[in-house]
Amino acid sequence: MAALSLQKHINKQLYDKWDLAYLYTDKNLKVVEVSDGLTLYGYPEIPLGCEVEDYVDFMVGFDASTRVDLPLVESPSGITVAVNLIPSKRGLAIVFSNASHLAEQRQLLQQKANENELLLRQQRILTHRLEQASKELEGKNEALREAARLQNSFLSGVSHEFRTPLSSIIGYTNLLERETHNPDKNPEAYANCRSYLRAVKRSSKHILSLVENLLDHGKLDADQIVIRPKPCDLHEVFDDIRLLLSPLAGTKNVEFTLQTNFEPGCMVIADDSRLRQCLLNIVGNAVKFTDKGSVTLKAELNRELLSIEVIDTGEGISKDNLAKIRIPFFQVADTGKAGTGLGLTITEGLIELMGGELVIRSELHQGTQVSFELPMPLLEAEALAMPEPSIDIDQLKVLLAEDDSDIADLLVMLLDEQNIEVTHVSNGALALEASEHEQFDLILMDLHMPVMDGYQAMEAMQKGGNTVPVAVMSASNLSEDRLQAQQYGCAAYLTKPVEIEEILLLANQLTSEA
Q1: Does the CA dihedral 33-37-43-45 come out positive or negative?
Q2: Residue 69, Cβ neighbours under 10 Å: how many?
Q3: Topology of 390-513 in CATH?
Q4: What would the pLDDT profile of 437-480 be if each residue is shown by its tens digit?
Q5: Neighbour order of strands in the sheet with 31-34
Q6: Helix axis angle, 187-221 to 234-251, nearest 10°
Q7: Residue 354 vs residue 10, higher pLDDT
Q8: Chain Cα centroid distance, residue 491
Q9: Total H helices, total E strands in the chain
Q10: Rounded Cα–Cα distance for residues 35 and 17 (Å)
Q11: How far apart are CA 289 and CA 316, in angstroms?
Q12: 3 state DSSP class of 430
């Protein structure tokens, strides 16, 4: 009866939804009624009048007067049930309902909690690693910045130290070569002297090209090299290569041959300095690594396209080394040949900047072929006519600021030969003072001088309203120095060693514009 009254108080839909089952006991926990659905949870048929704890094990220790809710209990069939012990005046109602969904939800929540904890742990580990990596990266970046600064400082120092004495060597050999041009005075002695001077001049230019290679390596990495095309005699460029490298080939009994299809006076638009540098590197390597046989330089100009091919009968290059020789500083081992390992890398970069592509073909013991093509516009005949000077060069007054006495004396002599009046000072402070007390047509300014350097002197002149064009003559060829000089009013930038022809052309141009 108690069970029937319990069913009356529970909605049938809820009864079916929850899979309700129950049993009823008296106050002594003896079973007085059992519902049909209890067997669905795996409980056996419970006879009336028995002790409930004999059939429902979790009832051990409970009494009929205490209300207890057991939310998750595993039934004998493995189904999770919720059990509610409901005391009443007559006894105890034990109600079972299906709680599988609650167990699944709790399991999912616990799983999510475990996953979240794992993710948080991994996040803390990764955050710590990221912080460590960030600190290490910043340290490495700082080291790289310091290395780059030291490299630029080193390159600048190398440039200055090499270019300064080379300026004297090349300048004085030019002067002596002109002095000995008269064949009437002991022709044989003069011929020997001129030969020696040409050798010194060639060697000096070769050293200069090595310096350029060192400097250009850093510039290529920083995209600082600028190609400056101008009118030039193409035949003269290749004749220089012949004069420079024929003696070296001769000492090794290697035949050097130059084959061209253009004559002297063939004027083109090109950066002759960079072209000469590339040819010197490629042909120089061919001569260096050829111990017998020949080296041939072929150059053909067809339809404003210059085709170059250098063929040697040297040892050649293995397939493995052929893939590596373009790497900076790489040199084939065990050759015994001196070098920086930069020439080919720099040459390839320069050729690409000039619009070409370097191609290398070689096999071990079969010699090597190096070729490239460059656009090479021809200069029209009417464009070759030089404009008449707009001023009389004899009337020029030039202020020269140069701390190296050898270079200063050389420039004074060369300018004096052109009847140009020169005032020489040895630092920027004296140059500033002279420009304030005397009128000049052109100022030639070195950058690195004692007391006051060229930058400071140009800045002071600029602030003082100086209108005289200032041309920098520096041993530094770094773009940073050029840009800084321009900021202080530099009208032109010449890199030492400077030829007298460059100064005269620049003087005519700048003073005409002024």
Answers
A1: positive
A2: 10
A3: Rossmann fold (3.40.50)
A4: 999 999 999 998 999 999 999 999 999 988 899 999 988 777 77
A5: 31-34, 21-26, 91-98, 80-87, 68-74
A6: 100
A7: 354
A8: 31
A9: 13, 17
A10: 16
A11: 8
A12: helix
Residue 468 carries which DSSP code? S
DSSP letters along 208-244, please?
HHHHHHHHHHHHHHTT------EEEEHHHHHHHHHHH
Distance CA 105, CA 96 (A): 19
Question: For the chain, what is the radius of gyration of the CA atoms?
Answer: 48
Task: Tell me which DSSP letter residue 390 carries.
Answer: S
Alpha carbon distance 302, 261 (integer Å): 9
Q: Which helix (H) or strand (E) segment is 115 a member of?
A: helix 100-179
The verdict on whether omega for the bond into residue 497 sits within 30 degrees of 0, i.e. cis, is yes
DSSP β-ladder status, 305-312 and 368-375: antiparallel
Q: Which fold has domain 226-383?
A: Heat Shock Protein 90 (3.30.565)
Cβ-proximal residues to 97 (8 Å cutoff; 6+ apart), any chain: 18, 19, 20, 21, 81, 82, 84
Query: What is the secondary structure of 355-419 as a DSSP string?
Result: T---EEEE-TTS-EEEEEEEE-PBPPGGGGSPPPPSS-GGG-EEEEE-S-HHHHHHHHHHHHHTT
Q: Which residues pair with 400 in a beta bridge?
A: 424, 444
CATH fold label, 2-98: Beta-Lactamase (3.30.450)
Domain boundaries, the chain: 2-98, 226-383, 390-513
CA dist 225 and 216 (Å) reads 7
Place of tokens 């000469």: 276
Is pTM, for the whole model, over 0.70? no
* pLDDT of 514 above 80: no
How far CA 445 is from CA of 395, 472, 490, 491, 497, in Å, comes to 20, 5, 9, 11, 14
Single-letter amino acid code for the residue at 359: V
- Per DSSP bridges, beta strands 31-34 and 21-26 are antiparallel
Q: Do the domains 226-383 and 390-513 sit in the same CATH topology, yes or no?
A: no
**Structure tokens belonging to residue 97:** 């309902």
